[in-house]
Amino acid sequence: MGLAERTPPSAEEYAGWRKEFCNWGRWGADDELGTLNFVTPAVRAAAAASVRSGRTVGLARPIDTFAGPANPYPAHHFVACEESGGMLDYIGLFIHGFTQTHIDALCHLQTHDGRFWNDKPVGSQHMPAEHSGTIDFWSQGVVGRGVLYDIPRLRGAEHIEPGHPVMGWELSDAAEAQGVEPRAGDIVMIRSGHGRYFELHPDESPRFASPSGVHAGAVEFLYRTDAAVLCWDWQDAPTDQQGIPNPASHPVPLHVHHILIPYMGMPIIDNADLEALAVACAEEGRWEFQFVCAPLVIPRGTGSPVNPLAIF
Amino acid sequence: MGLAERTPPSAEEYAGWRKEFCNWGRWGADDELGTLNFVTPAVRAAAAASVRSGRTVGLARPIDTFAGPANPYPAHHFVACEESGGMLDYIGLFIHGFTQTHIDALCHLQTHDGRFWNDKPVGSQHMPAEHSGTIDFWSQGVVGRGVLYDIPRLRGAEHIEPGHPVMGWELSDAAEAQGVEPRAGDIVMIRSGHGRYFELHPDESPRFASPSGVHAGAVEFLYRTDAAVLCWDWQDAPTDQQGIPNPASHPVPLHVHHILIPYMGMPIIDNADLEALAVACAEEGRWEFQFVCAPLVIPRGTGSPVNPLAIF
Amino acid sequence: MGLAERTPPSAEEYAGWRKEFCNWGRWGADDELGTLNFVTPAVRAAAAASVRSGRTVGLARPIDTFAGPANPYPAHHFVACEESGGMLDYIGLFIHGFTQTHIDALCHLQTHDGRFWNDKPVGSQHMPAEHSGTIDFWSQGVVGRGVLYDIPRLRGAEHIEPGHPVMGWELSDAAEAQGVEPRAGDIVMIRSGHGRYFELHPDESPRFASPSGVHAGAVEFLYRTDAAVLCWDWQDAPTDQQGIPNPASHPVPLHVHHILIPYMGMPIIDNADLEALAVACAEEGRWEFQFVCAPLVIPRGTGSPVNPLAIF
Amino acid sequence: MGLAERTPPSAEEYAGWRKEFCNWGRWGADDELGTLNFVTPAVRAAAAASVRSGRTVGLARPIDTFAGPANPYPAHHFVACEESGGMLDYIGLFIHGFTQTHIDALCHLQTHDGRFWNDKPVGSQHMPAEHSGTIDFWSQGVVGRGVLYDIPRLRGAEHIEPGHPVMGWELSDAAEAQGVEPRAGDIVMIRSGHGRYFELHPDESPRFASPSGVHAGAVEFLYRTDAAVLCWDWQDAPTDQQGIPNPASHPVPLHVHHILIPYMGMPIIDNADLEALAVACAEEGRWEFQFVCAPLVIPRGTGSPVNPLAIF
What we know:
The structure is a homotetramer. Chain A is of the alpha+beta class. Chain A is about 20% helix and about 15% strand. The first copy, chain A, is globular. The two termini of chain A are about 35 Å apart. Chains C and D meet through helix 2, strand 1, strand 2, strand 3 and strand 11 of C and helix 2, strand 1, strand 2, strand 3 and strand 11 of D. Strand 3 of chain A pairs antiparallel with strand 3 of chain B, so a sheet runs across the interface.
């Protein structure tokens, strides 16, 4: 079934999305933008024109250098020891994971038969074999209209509950409740309430997983609305909340990532902090704003740490 | 003398700027924004409103992992070896230097008597002793009006010549020639022509220095126009082109950095790539645009790698 | 009480060891060897002369790059990504912890009133303020007679049991049972049975702690026998097994480390793998051998990863 | 021609060594020791028995964290910034190059037709495709008889001169002059005089090369004497001093490395500091001693930083 029926996709329907929502070749065999193609200059101009108060909200978590179950390979903030060589402080981090706010490039994940976006080959160590699908092709930044889909607010809750992932049709509901019309080229920002959840559950510490998150059904919404980018605070809902097997042979659930990155060609910004944004939207009385995100230009990188901004 | 007389500052006048252009306490003893205070919401709103075509230009150089005289401590783009632990690729870099595009926080440099911005103490290894003046206070980003001061264009040249640094009054000249009125809160972007210079001098390779750059006199322009941020492709002009001794006991010339960072409280974005921006400004017919730069939120960091954007 | 009475030290006796077992000044105010002074050329010659079969046993664990509770800050084995700068593979690691085999230099830990070995000052970030007590002073290596104190063998067990740490008098017992006479300059190697323990407890995974380990009483044995170095597979027994409060304000128990490193000036080699050595000793029929350990020459380092060798 | 005739090999003879000095299969298809096979327990026992005074000499250079032409990818000695996660100091380095003292594993270099030692496949980024030829197979250490071939002493000079590399027959000459008989399993240590050279040429700084070094002809000596390991302070002599083209398509000369590592299966310890050893040998009146070198156990590493020791 689907969004209109307010039912989640079956495992078969989901598997069919590998074809149905596949954008390979849509923008040419050498396309490096994927759904960023929906962000036209006109879209960017309109987003800038929507700015009213000039209020800005940063959407990144602080870089986390502390080890923990959610942060097994912590970032590094180093300074050279006394009488050693170097130039003040050094920052180092694995781009991906459940902790650092980062954007995934299109070479980040493979299809189920081992290819990258637009049918490019996979190299060793899961890195791209060719210089394609990498983050440096987005050196001009991601600039457009951001829309916050505040699902806890929709549900009248502080955060979504484990066991109750964000369903695809709730995105339409949220848009309606927030007075926003989804448009082609949108940066769709789904708030589950990560920050609020751990504030209210101080005895629970983050694990290398999202306690809950977004159901695979959101993929259909993203495809049908010609969204350009997905940005979220919690990632793919746990497999046992999906009703669909994990599409990738991976301990981490990847139901949404799996269709978006290698098939649909849609960038994903993981681990955003959307708490201040939710407050700002409520105060500003609108859930759409100019969105700006500029990846570092890492040649052949599979992504980049980022600090996306919302500008009202 | 000064800008109006089209004369460079003498060594004594320059030394006097440590008092005359000092903003300590101007915004309170615990201020963490420095001249970013000039970027009000109204300034940000106006900058967004100036967007017309939606064209964006990235201003960062690619992260450079190759060793060389200009890049003695190269960045790292690593992947874990086969059968080793990690999470795909890792990016690591010293924030500062002459290669990576980065923004300096206000704790980056000391006054001549060993204090940081707003009279804060210096710790070991030249790092801040307190959690002040660090990059994480700018998590909300730097968003405002960018103005490109294209000095080679002003001079009718491809790039500035070694021996002929950018003088303070040339900034006024460039503004006039480009039909731009300097405003409070501007991100002042000074193009010397780094990219074009090395294109035309292929046998010369970059050293740990700028062949030429900006003269100390630019400091007066920045102060008097209530600029918020300096962004440039070449840094402080060599000391023998300044006519003023290097104010810091440092092999690298720091005439502009030295007043801006610890005294004036003005952030500096180093090593920008302004070539594409110069072309875009000429094509768009204007040298002002929306400017967005979002530092990574590095707790207690002295700066951050960045990819600033210009939006037309 | 003490070793002779086969009783553990009381908290007061232990505290008294800060004076009683303190070697400050014993070898001069600028000594950098501590108890390595007991390893004379004659000791080294005798150890070499004890070699019979030429059998060698490596005593290091493989460098561990995988995150886990026992390895919160994993080592790195990286290679530069395709088309990036570098020189084949890179190895990086925090020296200390519960995973990598390493030797502690004398500046590794402080006295309870904040000084390093031989009354040297502590700098920022717990690093030495002066170039003293650091690993580079041991560039000539640690070469001497190693003696394995196989406590599980003494107890007729596979490994020591949690709750039953290695007591000081058991070292004398083990020496006797193994037909070895402790001598000045010995490298005392205490086997708790880390490897065997986790082999037999596959469902238990290592934590950032030793399930059991060595009781503070071992300190007296080390002092009275003029030992030169301590080498072990499990570290200080948990505080609740010591009957003495943790002498350092640290979550990790440090009862043995605390007297040895800053007061007695005795190097400690942590996280050794003594399983193969125990087997070799049993096969060779002797528990003494030539011991060789060469720290990397890390200027101002607090220690070094090492792969110590036993030569029969 | 050859050693007996005191003539260097021609380019053709050198090329023929790829077959003539190839040890593939000599110790089995899955051999991981190469010429370390010559170091039998008896050899090790004899070496230990040769120890007389107990004097030890460390043979490693200090880890170098300072950038320079000889050290383009410097090592790192870091400590975590204040309020950041980590565990005291961190040491990181690229294993290879011209600066850090390290041992090459047998997978370090390829044959001219792209295979590793014992016909193993090459993977991506020049790393081994299989877990073979890697440093972790030498976890038991390299222990045997070291022999210093002090060529400057032979020549009555402070160091060898650029333009006058160490020729193969000079190794026989040095052995004779030093009263040493080459034996199977020897660790052959060739001193060119790196330390003394730069002491006497303070205005010259090391480059990413050896000013002079060892001629390809030394390969024949190593093969015919059944040497186990090569250890040296300067590496392969510059190509223009060899009279033989560089066998590998590499800017760095590799005439000796190229036959030893992938064909002969001989480990090489690069960048040793042999100055103190030369002095010790002269004082002790002998140029043979017990040699001990223990690589870190880096799973799948292509080598390891080491601090080899000579024990008299």
